Amino acid sequence: MSTSVLERLSGILVSYFGVEADEVHPDATFAELDLDSLAIVEFALVTEKEFGISIGEDEVSPKARVRDALAMLAAKGIRGDG
Amino acid sequence: MAEPFHAAVTGLGLVTPAGIGVAESWRTILAGRPAATRDSTLDGMPVDFTCRVPGFDADALLGRRTAWRLDRYVHLALVACREAITDAGLDPATWDGTRVGVVMGNALGGVATFTTQHETMLADGAAKVSSMLIPMMGVNMVAGYLAIDCGAQGPNLVTTTACASGTTAIGTARDLLRAGRCDIVLAGGAEAGLSRPILAGFARMGALSGRVDEPAAASRPFERDRDGFVAAEGAGVLVLERHEHAVARGARIRARVSGYGASADAHHATAPDPSGTGVESAIRSALADADLEPSDVDHVNAHGTSTQLNDAVEARVLARVFPGLPAVTSVKGVTGHSLGAAGAIEAACTVLAIEDGEVPPTANLDTPDPELDIDVVRGGSRRLGVVAATSNSFGFGGQNAVLVLTAA
Questions:
Q1: Alpha-carbon dihedral angle through residues B290, B293, B299, B302, given to the nearest 10 degrees
Q2: How far apart are CA A4 and CA B331, in angstroms?
Q3: Looking at residue A79, what is its pLDDT?
Q4: Contact list, A16 vs chain B (CB under 8 Å)
Q5: Bridging pattern class, strands B382-383 and B388-395
Q6: Catalytic machinery residues of B
Q7: Residue B151: which of B88, B89, B83, B81 has the closest Cα?
Q8: How much is the CA Rg of chain B, to the nearest whole Å?
Q9: Contact B262, B39 (CB under 8 A)
């Protein structure tokens, strides 16, 4: 698992969504971070822009964990120094 | 005639171009210091000045986690509402939320959000439009979000009567209390419509002051050389309670909403009926609702927008209804015209004038329009024991709303 992708994801969650940095860890669900079904769509949009990729509607959900998002990004070629 | 119904005003919250919070806003309004300034978001526009709330930082005041999902008009309302609840000495953790209603006035909804998202769609396509667009822009959402914030589970709605929306909201809230549907209603108005297309629209109507070289002098209600209103943003919230409920919990009753009148001009989309028939009917029915005579009224917080037509029609009606010449003021000389928030902000100012025994001046009233035969406070605030006052609002669409406020 790449720290730098986690850091970039954490940066999005903190600066855009107002999540506390210490809440963001691989096991946290997005729902626990106050990202509900509406907010998760916004999260996908912001993440698409940050990484220059496309994210499908079924690829993110409030029930998913941060580690699931990292795996999804890795599958799209976003890795360690990505 | 039935006994008049007095709704107790037990809390106030203000976020206005005159300041964040009741104390700062009221100080600026009493001092008659105009808030209008050049607005860099309107660079290149024919009218490039407004009255914004100075230094309003939603992330700092509400937390980024809350603020990112809300339009500015809801930001302003949330800050005002929290202040009003605290001022009333209420604790949302312990109240019976099912007995707490919310009635807010708003005219335009989240236009800044809509404008931004429309630009995104045109530039990047429909797939890039935010999922938050609809909940951020809806005119009803301000009341919904206030309820979410404080757990108010009673009747919840937004009144939309253009520039009278905030006044209509307070009148409607009092009706809910009178009908016994609520013990407490959080009532007011909020607006943050200072987007380029909105300002362009108002400018094209000829409604805005064109005094671009001198923004601070642009809003001059009842003045000889007035040439239009200055667009503003803001929010005001009043905590209204059934009198018995306020007394039972030992609340401080700051003033009372004792009458409400509403009417329609049924005349023209945006121009007031020059005869003032609808305006007069709203004032007279508010007085009748409060069981008061015109001679009982000491003070009128006028709509006073600084447009030629509004101020002329309003002044003629006031002269006709109130031969005793009550002290008239328009705080829009300071605050500009915050559309759906204006009535709520001005009702709060009327409460403060009653409490303090001090009527604020109408800013920029250098030479009163000689055609207008009313007593407008100018040059400085006026010490005056106010027992009964009206707060007037007249909206596009010919929608008129008038409150009678009385000393507790």
A1: 80
A2: 55
A3: 80
A4: 68
A5: unpaired
A6: 163, 303, 337
A7: B81
A8: 20
A9: no
